[in-house]
Structure formats: C-alpha cells, structure tokens
Amino acid sequence: MGDTFARIYDVVRQIPRGRVATYGQVAVLAGNARWARVVGYALHANPEPGTIPCHRVVDRSGRLAPAFAFGGEGAQRRLLAEEGVTTREDGTVDLSVYLWNGLKEGETP
DNA sequence: TTAATGACCTATC
DNA sequence: CGATAGGCCATTA
C-alpha cells in the first residue's frame, strides 16, 4: 500500500489519551483535507489493535463509529470512558470539550 | 482500465 | 432535527 495509510496511522497514533479527533481533522493533519473518507476506510481496512487508537476517532458531530466496526455496540463507548471521555445517551461525545487540539500530550501553544 | 465502494464532509430543503 | 444531494479520494474487484 502507499504511504497514505501510514500517514493516517501516524496521525491517529498521536491522538493523546482522553482526547478525540474527527476524520476530517485527521485528514488535514495527515496532509490532505479531502481524505476524511479515506481515513475511515483506512481505519476499517487495517485497524491494528494496540497500535492504532481508532476508538479516539469520531465523525464531525461527535458521533461514534457504527457498532459493527468494533464488534460490539458499546465497545468504543467503553474504551473512551476508560480514558475519561464521557459519551452522551445518543452515543456522541462533546467535541467542545474532548476535541484534540492537534498537539501532543503535555505540549502547549 | 473502468466502475463501484465507504468508520466522511458540506450545503440545502 | 432529519433527509437529500453532490463532491472527494484511495482501495478493490
């Protein structure tokens, strides 16, 4: 495969614990703003558990991935909860609180 | 090579 | 708020 996947995976790996990022945001940080769709495809096609925290990636409205993507309906929701990310009743996260600022943990602008 | 697909996004109604 | 339509790109068949 090309380096598109590698770039996307690199960005997803840098998402700090307790934070979430949108597909579009990952796409921008990976190099192209129009890779939002490709990001989703990449995570679905080759999600390496333990290496790529794909559960920290949500869509633009904070909606979690479809249930079948993780094997269980509350799987992603539970993983986020373990990191301190609370999900609403409808399965969405508050992006105004948990959205990743694009910096690594500990770094400040 | 062409056509179809999808864990998306934005705009519009 | 939900539904619809169009666009975008890499990957697959």
Tell me what the structure shows.
The chain has 109 residues and is mainly alpha-helical. The chain has one domain (2-98): Arc Repressor Mutant, subunit A. Helices cover 38% and strands 4% of the residues. The protein is built from five helices and two strands, in the order αβααβαα. The chain has helices spanning 3-13, 23-30, 36-45, 75-82, 95-98; strands at residues 21-22, 57-58. Strands 1-2 form a two-stranded parallel sheet. Helix 1 (3-13) packs across helix 2 and helix 2 crosses helix 3. It is globular and about 40 Å long. The model has no long low-confidence stretch (mean pLDDT 91). It binds a DNA duplex (13 and 13 nucleotides) through residues 1-2, 4-5, 22-24, 27, 32-45, 47, 54, 57-60, 64-66, 68-70.
Which short descriptors sum up this protein?
DNA-binding; two-stranded parallel ribbon; 109 residues; Arc Repressor Mutant, subunit A; mainly alpha; 4% strand
